[in-house]
Amino acid sequence: MATKIDPAVEKATQELCNKYQGVRAQIAKAIVGHDEVIDNVLTALFVGGHVLIEGVPGLGKTYLVRTLAQAVDLQFSRIQFTPDLMPADIIGTTVISEDPASGKRTFEFQKGPLFAQIILADEINRATPKTQSALLEAMQEHSVTVGGYKHVLDEPFFVMATQNPIEQEGTYPLPEAQLDRFMFKVIVHYSSRDELKLIVDRTTTGYTPDIQKAMTGKEIIGTQRLVRRIVMAPHVQDYAIRLGMASHPGGPFSVEATNKYVRWGASPRAVQTLTLGAKLMAMLDGRFNTSFSDVQRLYLPAMRHRVLLNFEGEAEGVSTDDVLRAILEATPTASEAVA
């Protein structure tokens, strides 16, 4: 017997699909290619997560988030992370303010650039761990505390952090516990020949994209709530759980590649990410229940920053993505009883 769908949910889902395509169309006016990267960034935004994006300079990472901020009606802030950046530089600080008429002095909180809705944390691995932690605390709590007072950040609050994988001198790589707070880690690859031709044509001929706002902050918050109403069947949920547990060396669902190359596996946040992301994938496909393919589609970006290789894996030049692909291939969709 087919499950009866709430007409309000059905209507809201159709509106989401239209809005999503509208935002995507606006981004396409400026960004050439990188379809998977754009989809992962929008998925994180629409379900309430954050994204760490990695790629060499000049591939359009900063331009992507700038364009996204133009396509949605949200306040945008760019923070360039440097070794001398302090937490107060991004959060803000309390200053003494004097009334010119009465001469009375009061303490006033001056907000930092973190008080926006879309934050571009450019080259996050160049800042010290203390400043990184200040940003990551805001990502988790959606608030900051200064001088004993809690300041709530405006919703929706979305952080896209970038890092350069090549130049590591003078950098402070994010520890695994802080990487885990990002919903996805997305890798930006080089453009193809045809894409590069279009990029050159656009950037050397005076072309200026006319980016229109296609979605409001209120609509994005509504989407984040709507996603949680989509059904995930028990057998699909179990598949996501087993994929997460398959990254645990020596665990009941570990595969050969896991036991050989992995030191630490993914946390429960990985399964939460797969669940929420798969629900959005189903909605965008016009379905009201998730499938195995929805989970598989997001497995690499959801897991690659949550799995830590051991010495043998690093010595043999095995990448985290190689291990994850092996897990996907070896983990059956059908559940099997484990003693």
Structural class: alpha/beta
**CATH architecture title of the largest domain:** 3-Layer(aba) Sandwich
> Nearest-angstrom radius of gyration?
22 Å
The CA-CA distance between the termini, in Å, is: 33 Å
Strand elements, count: 13
Share of residues in strands:
15-25%
What is the H-and-E element order?
HHEHEEHEEEHEEEHEHEHHHEHHHEHH
| Tally of distinct domains | 2
CATH H-tier superfamily of the largest domain:
P-loop containing nucleotide triphosphate hydrolases
Task: Give the proportion of residues in helices.
Answer: 40-55%
CATH class of the largest domain: Alpha Beta
Q: Could you say what the CATH topology of the largest domain is called? A: Rossmann fold
- How many helices does DSSP assign? 15
The major pleated sheet works out as: 5 strands, parallel
Oligomeric organization of the protein chains: single chain
Give the integer mean of the pLDDT values. 86
